[in-house]
């Protein structure tokens, strides 16, 4: 890039990057899927070739992070090693081999006047990705955007800047060797926060922004963006154990939904137990015995002496930790009302053997993902068979739940005539 | 409605209306499609029953409009008569009988672990419609929203306020008699412009806003909205007459695309003529003879002495009138470049008998609707077989081109398990 970072203001910089990105996207969108796939395979190969450079850059990031006092968890998210880097390159190869939605005919109709009308999937255009410390996002997001024919403008966290630059350099070299303009995937050349602001305002230049990171980042992006945002702010996921739940399944599901990994957005944060469910005390004891702090409403507190009192705030809190709020509910109506009031619209689950309760829950819960008799931790594009995901969205338009390649496309209408004029 | 309009500020008013609307929507979304359809039929019947009241209210609007100096075109948009009102009621009946997208299974997958994963179409929620002088929008938009299981908050133009209130009163009475809460369709009870501002900012309360009206309205909505907007600002539609165009078809299509109705968004505004097309002069003469003013670039001016010179501005102007800009282009590359630079992304057309040129145009033009050998005036939900449309969108996300019932839905993921925990 020969864009003069130091001498331009953030709006000009973003406009320049967007223009280059959009030009590259026009080239990408004329390539075949096979050509886009082989460009991704050469990007994966370049990541492997540049292994030493990337790991050295990452070591510098880690050293700087240690010096500036990053927490152990942050350093762990930042750290790459041979295995993690191999996994990043493998993931790029996997995305390359996914079936593409681009070119798919969504609908086709031949009108009485002979017009043939099709809706065909096309790339969205230029996608902005704003993320924090995980350097793997650089390659993952780039691969998903490129596979779906989109260009990407990436802005990673300052703590990962050296790793991200090394990964982007390798990725871009791989793409170029396969005939894709390097500007198809651009990393913001400055860590100036004003450039993030300029991305958020760049309606018409950037078509969609996907924030990847903590709630602070997502909230800022959602508050300031004039560009459409695909994101979820919270994952306040509920599991409702219905009166007709199988106790064995319910107990296993509760422990798994909360404790398998407590820090992911699909982790259960609130457990609703029907007062008619016979093994409520055992259920809660299982979760506590697995190492979880439980905060209960008045009725739940009676189940186990180790339960702490919940405050009103608990019902609206995403702990992302080994903490669980538990409320007792009198039947499915009360469960549905609680979920309607407190769910963040991410993933909510019912455990029941009763088909009527199951149907009603599936129909009435208005979240992006509604599950029966399964762990909310399955809320993931890979588990849904989508191959990979760019993120999970809780908005109502365009795409919801796990968003993968299809969510990175839009469509256009193709109308083929033979000279028809409109009467 | 017992909402105290005079004593609340616009934000509180919109929040109150939205809360009532969302409650009604929850009821709607639990009804069957057959029940929603019969509610619409009873709304249509109520519109017919209230014929005299509605026409009297409209006569008052017309009288007020004449007194305040509305133009003839504006009065014509505002005016209802027995036939127009019958057509409005008939349109509600037609929408009632359209196939519903709600409940449609978009995809289904059974995972190796036994989870059955479906994506199912659901209503979006509460749709805001902001429109100008046409009172038919009150019933049309209400019917489309209700048929797709959505509630609507309508804000019509001040000049039509009496007509809109009478139509909404009849519509709501019809719905209520069929068991739908009247708040499913609410008309903003004040014409205070600050209430429009409050609608535009009501992210999380209103799920989507559709502006229906002139460019000034749409531009304001797009500039100020924090709620997602489905709209098109301009319809700068091109027709490119390729060297291999059939001259007979080309001449008929040009006249129809421009002159059938000059004031609609799908009307051609710019004609691109290939320098290798043999009947350029005849083509332009046909358009001029049909009563159109033609403004041409230097080469086009040589085709006919009646052509006026075009300025740079003409290529970016939506005339919505019997005016056409004409540019000569050397081949398809130049045509594609002109369209890429000046199209508003609404509808662009190629006229050609050459399959290669046709394919390339369909692939490379990035507009919501791309046509071959047909009049751009076909850009319409009814002509596309969608039954009716809420509007035409030129944005890239969610829905593009003519937006009908499907564009008023979103989806959720339903995951059915048998006790699966995630490893």
TrEMBL record, chains A, B:
Residue span(s) of domain Aldehyde dehydrogenase: 15-276
Family annotation (InterPro entries): Ald_DH/histidinol_DH, Ald_DH_C, Ald_DH_N, Aldehyde_DH_dom, G-glutamylP_reductase_CS, Glu-5-SA_DH, GPR_dom
Keyword check for Oxidoreductase: yes
Pathway: Amino-acid biosynthesis; L-proline biosynthesis; L-glutamate 5-semialdehyde from L-glutamate: step 2/2
Pfam families: Aldedh
Reaction(s) catalysed (UniProt annotation): L-glutamate 5-semialdehyde + phosphate + NADP(+) = L-glutamyl 5-phosphate + NADPH + H(+)
Keyword NADP among UniProt keywords: yes
Any one of the GO BP annotations: L-proline biosynthetic process
GO molecular function: glutamate-5-semialdehyde dehydrogenase activity; NADP binding
Broadest EC class assigned to this enzyme: oxidoreductase
Family matches, as PANTHER family: DELTA-1-PYRROLINE-5-CARBOXYLATE SYNTHASE, GLUTAMATE SEMIALDEHYDE DEHYDROGENASE
Record family assignment: Belongs to the gamma-glutamyl phosphate reductase family.
Function summary: Catalyzes the NADPH-dependent reduction of L-glutamate 5-phosphate into L-glutamate 5-semialdehyde and phosphate. The product spontaneously undergoes cyclization to form 1-pyrroline-5-carboxylate.
NCBIfam families: PRK00197.1, proA
Name of the protein described by the UniProt record: Gamma-glutamyl phosphate reductase
Species of origin: Tsuneonella suprasediminis
């Amino acid at each position: 890039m020969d864009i003069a970072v130091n001498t331009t203001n953030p709006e000009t910089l973003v406009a320049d990057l967007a223009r280059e990105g959009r030009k590259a996207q026009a080239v990408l969108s004329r390539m075949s899927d096979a050509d886009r796939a082989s460009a991704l395979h050469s990007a994966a190969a370049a990541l492997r070739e540049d292994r030493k450079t990337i790991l050295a850059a990452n070591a510098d990031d880690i050293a700087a992070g240690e010096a500036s006092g990053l927490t152990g968890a942050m350093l762990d998210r930042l750290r790459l090693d041979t295995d993690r880097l191999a996994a990043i390159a493998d993931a790029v190869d996997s995305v390359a081999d996914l079936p593409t939605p681009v070119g798919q005919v969504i609908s086709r109709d031949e009108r009485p006047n002979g017009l043939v009308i099709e809706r065909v999937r096309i790339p969205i255009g230029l996608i902005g990705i704003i993320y924090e410390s995980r350097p793997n996002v650089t390659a993952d997001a780039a691969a998903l955007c490129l596979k779906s024919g989109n260009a990407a403008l990436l802005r990673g966290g300052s703590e990962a800047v050296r790793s991200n630059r090394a990964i982007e350099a390798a990725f871009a070299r791989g793409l170029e060797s396969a005939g894709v303009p390097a500007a198809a995937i651009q990393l913001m050349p400055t860590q100036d926060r004003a450039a993030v602001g300029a991305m958020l305002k760049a309606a018409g230049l950037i078509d969609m922004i996907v924030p990847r990171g903590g709630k602070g980042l997502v909230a800022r992006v959602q508050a300031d963006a004039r560009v459409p945002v695909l994101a979820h702010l919270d994952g306040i996921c509920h599991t409702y154990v219905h009166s007709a739940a199988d106790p064995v399944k319910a107990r296993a599901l509760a422990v798994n939904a909360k404790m398998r990994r407590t820090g992911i957005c699909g982790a259960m944060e609130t457990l609703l137990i029907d007062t008619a469910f016979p093994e409520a005390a055992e259920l809660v004891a299982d979760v506590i015995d697995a190492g979880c702090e439980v905060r209960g409403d008045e009725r739940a507190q009676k189940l186990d002496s180790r339960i702490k009192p919940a405050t009103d705030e608990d019902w609206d809190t995403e702990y992302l930790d080994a903490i669980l709020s538990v409320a007792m509910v009198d039947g499915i109506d009360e469960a549905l009302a609680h979920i309607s009031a407190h769910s963040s619209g991410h993933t909510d689950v019912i455990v029941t053997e009763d088909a009527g309760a199951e149907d009603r829950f599936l129909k009435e819960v208005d979240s992006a993902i509604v599950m029966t008799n399964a762990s909310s931790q399955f809320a993931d594009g890979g588990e849904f068979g989508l191959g990979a995901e760019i993120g999970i969205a809780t908005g109502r338009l365009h795409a919801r739940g796990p968003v993968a390649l299809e969510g990175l496309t839009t469509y256009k209408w193709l109308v083929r005539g033979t000279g028809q004029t409109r009467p």
